[in-house]
Inverse folding.
């Protein structure tokens, strides 16, 4: 799917090297916002194993694992996780990151918009959820721009950079 200069597609095994390269470069920049990861997260081999697991989850209908592309280069990931396809639930949770070299150009905002279209049209979901750190204002801007509203705070919800942090919870209703 394409929106202006941003495209998303399902992740592929061949994306492992690009993702590892970004995550090695951005390890310090992402430390306040993303959980600590094991050493193999920062290698192509470790990312390839992770991609295999994501694609197995996709085959099982539990996750839609995407990459974000600009000029056909992988610049980040957008993932719909926690998919509950049951007719009375039909919800999923959106997560994303954009490499520091490509930030503040609108890519996350457009990628989340494309992911919401996928959730509605391809996955048939009714409700989208997300969570952000209370201080992660860029991520909150991305969600607000895509019609999400904050609906609560989950206390002591995620271990980030050595301390348990509260999470701001977001929702967007996609349709019927
Ligand atoms: C959060 C993140 C995905 C945003 O990606 P991005 O491609 O830079 O996002 P966009 O360019 O689409 O939008 C960023 C918005 O934040 C705003 N912004 C940037 N720095 C800001 C700051 N310090 N304070 C407040 N707003 C800020 C931009 O102006 C823009 O808002 P606008 O749409 O109103 O102009 C990226 O910074 C990232 O990956 N961070 C590290 C990992 C992370 O936080 N993941 C999300 C976890 S919930």
């Amino acid at each position: 799917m394409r929106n202006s200069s941003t495209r998303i597609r399902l992740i592929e095994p061949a994306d492992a090297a690009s993702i590892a390269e970004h995550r090695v470069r951005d390890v310090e920049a992402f430390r306040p916002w993303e959980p600590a990861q094991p050493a193999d997260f920062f290698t192509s081999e470790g990312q390839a194993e992770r991609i295999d697991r994501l694609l197995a989850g996709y085959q099982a209908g539990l996750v839609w694992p995407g990459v974000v592309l600009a000029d056909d280069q992988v610049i980040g990931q957008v993932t719909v996780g926690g998919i509950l396809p049951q007719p009375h639930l039909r919800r999923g949770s959106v997560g994303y990151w954009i490499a520091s070299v490509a930030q503040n150009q609108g890519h996350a905002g457009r990628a989340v918009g494309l992911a919401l279209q996928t959730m509605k049209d391809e996955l048939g979901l009714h409700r989208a959820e997300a969570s952000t750190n209370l201080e992660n204002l860029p991520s909150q801007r991305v969600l607000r721009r895509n019609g999400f509203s904050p609906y609560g705070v989950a206390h002591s919800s995620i271990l980030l950079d050595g301390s348990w942090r509260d999470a701001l919870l977001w929702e967007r209703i996609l349709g019927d």
